[in-house]
Amino acid sequence: MTQHKASPRFEPDVVVVGSGAGGGMAAYALTRAGIKTLVLEAGRTYDPVAESAMLKWNHQAPLRASATPDKSFGYYDATAGGGWDMPGEPYINAPGTIFRWWRSRMLGGRTNHWGRHVPRFGPYDFKGKSRDGLGADWPISYEDIAPYYDRTEKLIGVSGANSGLENHPDSSPGVLQPPSKPRVPELMIQAAAADLGVPCVPSRYAILTRPIEDAHAPRQACFYATPCGRGCAIGAAFQTTTSLLPMAMGTGKLRIITDAMVARVLTDARGHAKGVEYIDRKSGATHFVAARVVVLAASACESARILFNSHTAQSPHGLANSSGQIGRSLMDSTGTDIFGHIPALEGRPRYNEDGKDNAHLYIPFWLYKEQAAGKLDFPRAYHYEIGGRFEMPGARFGLAGAEDGYGLSLKEDARRYYGAQVSFSVRGEMVPNADSYCELDPDAKDKYGLPVLRFHWKWSDHEYRQIAHGVKTARQIIERMGGRVLTPDVPPEQAIQSGGEIIHEVGTTRMGTNAGDSVTDGFGKSWDIPNLVIADGGVFPSNAHKNPTLTILALSWRSMDHLAARMRKGEI
Amino acid sequence: MTEISRRETLAWIAAASASAFAPQASLAAESGPAAWSDAAVPPATGPGYGHDPDLKAADVPWPLTFNPHQRAILHLSAGLILPADAGSPSGETLPLDAFVDEWISAPYPAQQQDRALILPGLAWLDEEGERRFGQDFVAASDAQRRAIFDAIAFRDRVALGYERPAQFFARLRGLMLAGFYTLPQGMADIGYLGNVPLVTDYPGPTPEAMAHLNASLTKLGLKPFNQG
Question: Is residue A217 part of a domain?
Answer without folding.
Answer: no
